Amino acid sequence: MVRKYKLRPRPTARVDRFSILPDEVAHHILSFLKFIDLVRVSTVSKTCRRFYLSIPSLEINRYNLYARRDQEEVQLLNFLDRYFFNRGDNRIQHFHIHWSFNWKPSNKQIQVTDWIHKAVRCNVEVLDIDFCALPPLFVMPSSVFVSQSLRSLSVHLHGVILQAPSSSLLCNLHYLKLSEIKIVDECFFKWISCSCKCIKELQLDQIRGLPKITIESSSLKLFKVWSKDLFHLNIFGDKIEDIHITWRKFYPPPSRKWLNISAPNLKNLKWEGNLMNIQNLGILMSLEKAVVFLESAVNEFDNVSKVICSISRAKVVILNEWTIKALLREYIIPTSLDDLCCFGVELKNLNDDLVPAVVSLLREMPNLNTLQIQCSPRSSVANSRCSGIDMGFWKLQNLAFIYQLKEAKLWLSNGSNGIELAKYILEHAQNLEKMVIFHLFKDSDVVRELKSKMISNATVVCHVRKDERATSLRFIH
User: Fold this and answer.
1) What SS3 class is residue 268?
2) I need a labelling partner for 108 at 20 to 30 A (CA). Which of 80, 100, 102, 122 fits?
3) Which residues lie closer than 8 Å to 11 by C-beta, 6 or more apart?
4) Structural element, H or E, at residue 317
5) How does pLDDT run across 85-125, given as a tens digit for each residue?
6) Can you spell out the DSSP letters for 323-336?
7) pTM (2 d.p.)
8) How far is 107 from 73, CA to CA, in rounded Å?
């Protein structure tokens, strides 16, 4: 008997589909990997190694590289030295480096700083530096400041002094962010003002050391500062469109603090924290949106009405509860809010004490067409203190804006004051086009009944609030 054999199909050779991808596609895929995974990919084939040595977006984070012992860190540093050597001049578009040191000068600081120099040599465009536990003074390689390719620079030093560059070093930076850095020399800001001729965005986050900062730029468009020991701030720029200031309380407080702004084309202003003794905001003829969120009881309320008057030409104004309380304490309500189109407030709750202050502001906004009021979903104020305002009160106010109002959004909290306001709007805003009400579950039946007496053909949308804590305002941008 002859045994029959079945012929098995010959296995086809595996195709390396990744290696035949165009460089830009392969680089995009590899950009989602951590560096240690890139190293593993590089061992697959010669083509993968070429991708690994030419990837334009490079992130090196010491905490992702598992070098916990000193000897392991030395080996890692040497490995990365060889990596940058083997890269050669392959272009680096984005380089992010996060490294921790031991507070003392050492060779590893020299090695890591040399990687920055090599990234600049490879025409890096975006450079993010995050160094922890450095010695007291960090000197940035001068090649960073004179790089012709570098457009974005972010430096985070966790409280270490950053040495000021020479004012003779001209740079092409468009974006500069300094975080948790101590600056002790005014020359640093003179360098920004005089040498950064192309800068468009400047962010100073928790900058310490100097009590006075002066920025003067003909190209700057956005300026953002967060500080608690900055006492004098001067900002000058014809092209500045956005300014965001977060000024926290400093103990002991200085006797005098001032702010000077000269930005005739400013469109958006956001002020958080505390006010100064003197604030000169200039004439803001182009202002479109202003947000003033003052801090709680630590604030000095003397100049709030002056600030509100300075932003009165804005189309959109958003205030928080402490700002409104400050106005109520001063007994001065600005009387020049005729151009205001959108008004928003953020409150813990619409309690009986706050309503008169809100009404006083609304009375000065005859052309208001968008109103947004957000209250925290959970408030410690008793319902009895949030239920003393009824429809009769609102009718007696004779608010002119109610006939211009087109859109309203209300985030209601405990008590009936918010519901009574919603009822007043629906029954009197004849030009209303849309109203959105976010309410507590227990008020669902009462809110549904509000629609029965509405005077307009507006679209009314009601949602049960699902948030468990106060969220940020969802205002029109």
Assistant:
1) strand
2) 122
3) none
4) strand 316-320
5) 999 999 999 999 999 887 777 788 889 999 999 999 999 99
6) HHHHHHHHT---S-
7) 0.85
8) 12
